[in-house]
Design goal:
Shape: elongated
Largest sheet: none
Radius of gyration: 22 Å
Number of helices: 3
Helix content: 40-55%
Number of strands: 0
Structural class: mainly alpha
Length: about 100
Amino acid sequence: MGPVSGLVLLAVIWTVVFFIVLPLRLETQGEAGEIVPGTHASSPANFSFKRKAKITTYFAVPIWAVIAVVLLTGAVSVRDIDWFERMSTPEVSRD
């Protein structure tokens, strides 16, 4: 895995974890009782992107590190997850 592949893997993992973290501990304007005119009652009351990004990073980096180590050490290869044997090489006849 090269540096660019590592960064892409981190970006994908970070994004997935972000969408998981996003609704956690969410307080809506309707729950807070202060609905801003022109917004839905389900809009976030006190949203902090910086806090959500920090929490996401705390979870995404260790997940990325584990996956990167597994890939770099070769513990799991593409052939290990080839369940339908589409990557098998044809046998060569030796005459």
